Amino acid sequence: MNSSADIQAILALADGTIFRGVSIGSRGHRVGEVVFNTAMTGYQEILTDPSYARQLVTLTYPHIGNTGTNSEDSESGNTHKIWAEGLIIRDATMATSSFRNTESLTDYLTRNDTVAIADIDTRKLTRILRDKGAQHGCIMTASEGSAITPDDEQKAIELAKGFAGLSGMDLAKECCNPDGFEWTEGTWELSDTLLNRDVEGSFDTGTGGFFKQLGKHIDEKYNVVAYDFGTKTNILRMLVDRGCRVTVVPAETPIADVLAMNPDGIFLSNGPGDPAACTYAIDNVRHIIENTDVPTFGICLGHQLVGLASGANTMKMKTGHHGANHPVQDVEAGTVMITSQNHGFAVDEATLPDNVKSTHRSLFDGTNQGIELTNKPVFSFQGHPEASPGPHDCAPLFDRFITLMEAAKTAQA
Ligand SMILES: NC(=O)CC[C@H](N)C(=O)O
């Protein structure tokens, strides 16, 4: 909603298209790859998903911010960092309403130094991205006390053209937590009794507050080492729910160090950038496949790394998949799952070696969505079984990882 007090902002695409709107975040400019996400909910999870690093995300759902933000819906762990390079929306809500809200979306964006633009025609933008593929872009806000000038527009187009593009970019080592950490929280659900949030508005992990944690009561049966390439937090929560003690290690941790921890299973996380550029990670996964029998599960970037380490290629997609309603078929069973997706690269199925089976395919465009090795307990999935946001149809993939670890333990006993 425009008012004379609004700060002008523009989105410039590298092809010269300019969208004019208003700033709803911090001032400045940011460049990145412009992608559209079709999920109707989950703007906070999307903003905090590390896989969106260097991407300017437009949400096709028009009205954003209604329920505000809170400290629980972060996908970037305890840092709560916004990883998306910028946000592009149609309509920022004027009133925030939710009992879980602690901060409006606009305040949240500003506090996190995120540049964001509203009041633009996101349908037109999405059509451009659909027709031409993901575009390089620049969001720029007017500087203090002035309006956007024709010079600003020209500069924004040049900045968009100057973005190097995600192909060849290794962002995993930059976006992981460099210190590693133990993750102990499971998923949560609203508690039966609704009590007040404490004065700090902090997350009450007990059973008496807004939320009760699931999974905490389960004994830690499986020692899982999770390679962090920019992991989403809900993946770690879902592992904890299933009885895993989760040790998260940075992307470049040598595989020898991981194996020295004697893991029951190795998890390969999602993450931003081009998987083929993460050569150290590909080497580590190749080592797992060729020299060990440790059950291994990869999600999204982790899936692509399994593909690359087994000898397949990955390719850049036209627009990629970003949404919460993507149908994926289980190749063997023929069943269809509605899945959450966020990727711009894909494993090229035509290049899969003989010992790697395609297990899942996208019903939107036929691209590969899952693989498994026929000679090792290693499998991976392109979509997001942890959802956040999105449907939970493929959550049983986590159980499959547990089954593999259990089988390996039984075989060893
Ligand atoms: N969510 C992810 O892990 C994304 C993987 C990779 N960066 C891609 O865009 O395809």
Could you describe the 3D structure shown?
With 413 residues, the chain is of the alpha/beta class. It has helices spanning 43-48, 105-111, 122-132, 150-162, 172-175, 233-241, 255-260, 279-291, 301-309, 396-412; strands spanning 8-13, 18-23, 29-37, 55-59, 63-64, 86-88, 91-92, 115-118, 135-141, 181-183, 188-190, 211-213, 222-228, 244-250, 265-268, 296-299, 314-330, 336-347, 356-362, 368-373, 378-381. The protein has two domains: 8-162, Carbamoyl-phosphate synthase small subunit, N-terminal domain (Glucose Oxidase, domain 1, 3-Layer(bba) Sandwich); 172-412, Class I glutamine amidotransferase (GATase) domain (Rossmann fold, 3-Layer(aba) Sandwich), CATH 3.40.50. It has a ten-stranded mixed sheet with strand order 10-14-13-15-16-21-20-19-17-18, with helices on both faces. Strand 13 (222-228), helix 6 (233-241) and strand 14 (244-250) form a beta-alpha-beta unit. Helix 8 crosses helix 9 (301-309). 48% of the residues are buried. Residues 51, 270-273, 275, 300-301, 342-345 line the site of glutamine.
How do you describe this structure in short?
This protein has 413 residues and is α/β, with parallel strands linked by helices.
Uncertain stretches: 194-208
What characteristic shape results from the CA principal axes? globular
Number of strands: 21
How many discrete domains? 2
Number of helices: 10
Helix- and strand-based class? alpha/beta
Mean pLDDT: 93
Q: What share of the residues lie within helices?
A: 10-25%
Strand content: 25-35%
* Annotated CATH homologous superfamily of the largest domain: Class I glutamine amidotransferase (GATase) domain
The largest sheet, given as strand count, sense and whether it forms a barrel, is:
10 strands, mixed
Strand order of the largest sheet: 10-14-13-15-16-21-20-19-17-18
* N-C termini distance: 65 Å
The top-level CATH class of the largest domain is Alpha Beta
Cofactors, ions, other ligands: glutamine
Binding site for L-glutamine: 51, 271, 273, 301, 304, 342, 344-345
Protein name: Carbamoyl phosphate synthase small chain
EC number: 6.3.5.5
Domain Carbamoyl-phosphate synthase small subunit N-terminal: 7-140
